Amino acid sequence: MAVENCTGFPDFILLGLSDRQDVQRGLSVLFLLVFGITVIANLGMVWLINMDPRLHTPMYYFLSNLSFCDVCYSSTVYPKMLADFLSEQKTIPYNLCAIQMFLFCAFEVVELAVMAYDRYVAICNPLLYTVTMSRSICTQLVAIAYLVGLADSAIHTCCTFRLLFCNSNIINHFFCDIPPLLALSSSDTSINEMVMFTFIGCVVGFSIITICLSYSYIITTILRMNSAEGRRKTLSTCASHLTAVAIFHGTPLFMYFRPSSSYSMDTDKMAPVFYTVVIPMLNPLIYSLRNKDVKCALKKATGTKLCSG
Fold first, then answer.
1. What pLDDT digit, counting tens, does each position of 52-96 carry?
2. Left (φ > 0), alpha (ψ -120 to 50) or beta: where does 249 sit?
């Protein structure tokens, strides 16, 4: 459609997860509960790590940043989604849609790759750990992770909102994400798809390669250990991180690495629900339930009997 014949829309309409009022009311209660748990658990993790001197190590510094990212990540989606559950008019202004997309994409965390590198240094080069993972280096690694996310997000947001939306303003989704907007656009989206595959491929690919290389060295080091108890303890320190990696990277790869013609939004809404709703809630639980240091710090903070050993 020619640009001069295109009449733009001042806002978009989000269809959400369901058009049934009874289902929406039920989902509003469920997601409000989940959002509350997500915020309390993640901010609680950040507070606990900052308050307890035993947790002032690179691993927990990265974990506190992961928790902060999870709060920001979910907060870009939850408030609008909860408001839409209770509203007849599920509109979002054009500019706010762009802002939501930018903030959401900015927290596609490279933090997990940094955490994998931290585990590699701790297990494979323990004598150099305090030098290699000094506070200044940790701060630089976190800053790089944030800058990569912000740059990647800015590219995707600018490319997406240069498209024309002439035929409809109805987004079959519950927030402003890249795939549903590409499917809605009346412009040729082939360049956008190429940019999306390239940049997400680079960011996610770098993260996955870093994780795989780190754990290949970690596994080699573990296999060389003579003590079965030593191997078990070393593996247990990596189990939480590996669980988080599998959950976090698996869902976005399924969501984004397909051509827009293959999207079925009614089905594909489930994947974003998982990584915007479930993962930010699970991360603090994954890293705390089997972590003795975190459990001891929590017991100390709540005034219960301290754990021994």
1. 888 898 988 998 998 998 898 889 988 999 999 888 888 999 999
2. alpha
Spatial separation of the C-alpha atoms in residues 162 and 164, rounded to whole Å: 7
Q: Tell me how far CA of residue 55 lies from CA of 75, 276, 294, in angstroms.
A: 26, 27, 8
Q: Are strands 11-14 and 170-171 parallel, antiparallel or unpaired?
A: parallel
Express each pLDDT in 203-236 by its tens digit. 878 888 898 899 899 889 888 888 887 788 777 7
Cβ-Cβ contacts under 8 Å for 199 (sequence gap 6 or more): 152, 155, 156
- Sequence-distant contacts of 186-191: CB under 8 A, at least 24 apart: 186/1, 186/6, 187/163, 189/163, 189/260, 191/159
- Partnered with residue 121 across adjacent β-strands are none
> 297 Cβ partners below 8 Å, 6+ apart?
48, 49, 51, 52, 54, 55
Structure tokens at 173: 């989704």
Instruction: Band the pLDDT of 254: cuts 50, 70, 90.
Output: low
Q: Determine the 3-state secondary structure of 302 from DSSP.
A: coil
Distance CA 86, CA 305 (A): 44
- pLDDT of 100 reads 93
